[in-house]
Amino acid sequence: MSSAFAKWGAAWNKHDLDGVMDLFHDEIYFENWTGGWVRGKEKLRQAWAPWFANHGDFRFTDEETFIDEIEQKMLYRWQLDSPSFEKGQEDKHEARRGLDVLHFKDGKIIQKLTYSKTTLELNGERVRLTTREA
User: Which of 12, 18, 76, 96 is such that its CA lies 20 to 30 A from the CA of 4?
Assistant: First the structure.
């Protein structure tokens, strides 16, 4: 599991969507830090294709990983450095910290739940995220 995960992490930082998708199960359920979700490998590929095409040279830094091979679960803590996702801040550099809870089935990720801190750094300044009105 750990060697496959290392290869997967390298694919993220090479902005290799095919390499990232390779570790996902066909029935993947993904939920991002905003609560948005998608089910199915091809739907996830479609959702991520624009981000990978216009990636802004995002980079993930591994901070900590816990693997339970018996239960086929993993907790992955990371930092994402990228152009900001925040409305009105797109021209700034963002550093966001979070974690993924990953569940595996048949050697592939079947569930990926992503959580993010409520603060991030924009151009080196710590900023608290605010809730958005619907």
Answer: 96
As a CATH number, domain 2-128 is: 3.10.450.50
For 28, half-sphere exposure in the C-beta direction (CA atoms, 13 angstrom radius) is: 26
Q: In sequence order, what E strands does the chain have?
A: 24-31, 37-39, 59-68, 73-83, 93-105, 108-116, 119-122, 125-128
Distance CA 80, CA 59 (A): 6
Amino acid letter, residue 130: T
Task: Give the DSSP letter string of 54-76.
Answer: T-TT-EEEEEEEEEETTTTEEEE
Contact 26, 107 (CB under 8 A): no
For the chain, the domains span 2-128
Q: How many CB atoms lie within 10 A of CB 78?
A: 20
pLDDT tens series, the chain, 134 aa: 677 888 999 999 999 999 999 999 999 999 998 899 999 999 999 999 999 998 889 999 999 999 999 999 999 999 999 998 778 888 889 999 999 999 999 999 999 999 999 888 888 888 887 655 54
